[in-house]
Amino acid sequence: MMSLNNGQTLTVSGQDNRTHLEDSVVLKPSTPTRKPKPPKPENAITIAVSARVLFNMDKEQQIYEQQGMEEYIKYQVEHETQPFSPGPAFSFVKALEAVNTQLRELYPESEELFDVVLMTNNHAYVGLRLINTINHHQLFIERFCMTGGNSPIGYLKAYHTNLYLSADPIKVREALEEGIAAATMFTQEKITEVSETQLRVAFDGDAVLFSDESEQIYKAHGLDKFFEHEKAHENKPLDHGPLKGFLEALGKLQKKFYGKGQRMDCPIRTYLVTARSAASSGTRALKTLRSWGLEIDEALFLAGAPKGPMLEKIRPHIFFDDQMFHVEGAAEMGTVACHVPYGIAQRITKTGIKDRETSSETK
């Protein structure tokens, strides 16, 4: 069974598979040498991640909530040579870096690369512990924004951010309202092992890649009217959803690998995992992607079946959905699932879900 508590933790009964580093692990503050130069923001595909999704900061968050900011900062400074353990975005970031390594080999002079920015409203005093942890895990993250409690939205725009991942649903909504692709991530007790050589990204369709136009028909008039509407409009492309631009950015990098004859073993693979039925409403989804000039590597039309079992087979580094029901179902089976709070599903929702997901956040 799974629940979402006010600390933005998806709790699954059963074995706890998270990696926790013992307090005895101490880092030597050192700076790795010979790191490649980061690309200019205007050329890069920028992924902004908050500290709380890149690393497991549950204990520190508890201190902040129960004892306040001063005790929180004091604790962080006292423990700045002790590393944070990986959080839900960690494997995704490592996969981005693996893709970059291959891109640099194929295109040594190109700056069309992923660039990860640590975007956090932590106080700058916490910065040393974050830097030491990043070096400990051998992550290539050179750009930090520690905003000291201020909104990160202006910085996200300045960095030409293509995707923002945070544990704070309020900040995620702010980003979406400003046209920035964003999703809320949760601490999960169970995370499935994923590929270290191929980045796999899975998307829901309606209200994620596409607008919520069709979802509105379904919510207002039911399934039969939805099928009628999709059949009548199958040659009219859907409007874009909040993550269309991120799929576009992934496709741009995929084509660089295709250009070197690596279509069949491309280190980026994308998936459409939708509750739509293939025969009755799948045509419009596929024609919309074609009209945008975008390819999706695999399309799974589940006709209302649970998404968790399919995602367990795909083993994506990240999955985006606009409905918490699907996010929880996927996470229960070990998929790192993110919530995109966009569209009509956020207004017509089961009692309690919205309350559970609007917690006060810090870091």
How are the elements arranged and paired?
Blueprint lengths: L1 E3 L4 E4 L32 E5 L1 H4 E2 L1 H10 L1 H10 L6 E2 L3 H17 L7 E7 L6 H10 L6 E4 L6 H6 L2 E6 L2 H9 L4 E3 L2 E2 L10 E5 L9 H9 L1 H10 L11 H15 L9 E7 L3 H14 L6 E4 L6 H7 L3 E4 L2 H9 L4 E3 L13 H5 L6
Please explain how this structure is put together.
With 363 residues, this protein is an alpha/beta fold. It has 14 helices and 15 strands. Strand 1 (2-4) and strand 2 form a beta hairpin. The two termini are 27 Å apart. This is 5'-nucleotidase, cytosolic IAb. One of its GO terms (biological process) is nucleotide metabolic process. Residues 1-43 are annotated as: Disordered. It comes from Labrus bergylta.
For the CA atoms, what is the radius of gyration? 20 Å
DSSP strand content: 15-25%
What is the CATH superfamily label of the largest domain? HAD superfamily/HAD-like
Outline the biggest β-sheet. Answer: 5 strands, parallel
Task: Quote the average pLDDT.
Answer: 86
String of helices and strands: EEEHEHHEHEHEHEHEEEHHHEHEHEHEH
CATH topology of the largest domain: Rossmann fold
CATH class of the largest domain: Alpha Beta
* Helical stretch tally: 14
Number of strands: 15
Number of domains: 2
